[in-house]
Write a structure and sequence with these properties.
Distance between the termini: 27 Å
Shape: globular
Low-confidence stretches: none
Structural class: mainly beta
Strand order of the largest sheet: 2-1-4-5-3-6-7
Helix content: 10-25%
Largest sheet: 7 strands, antiparallel
Number of strands: 7
Number of helices: 1
Mean pLDDT: 95
Number of domains: 1
Length: 87
Amino acid sequence: MEDGTYRYENAAFTPIQEIFGYWVAKEEIARDEIEEGMTIGVWTDKDGRLWIDRSYHLSDLVPAIALAQAWNQKAIYDIAKNEVINV
């Protein structure tokens, strides 16, 4: 699976193409934990490790940062700027 954000429906991963807002990861999950209707973020770190996170889309920066902090995340993803924001 390529880096990106997907919705899992009908036993298939469909890429999500948002153009604004922020992706916030809640937690890392294993591939066998993915459930119907779930949104997941997939990314590869600099060491080549593949990460799969349960992810949520928020429109506004302040709530996205607050949620990331509540979930003990290190960063969120700014879709429009195509960049990571450390929190």
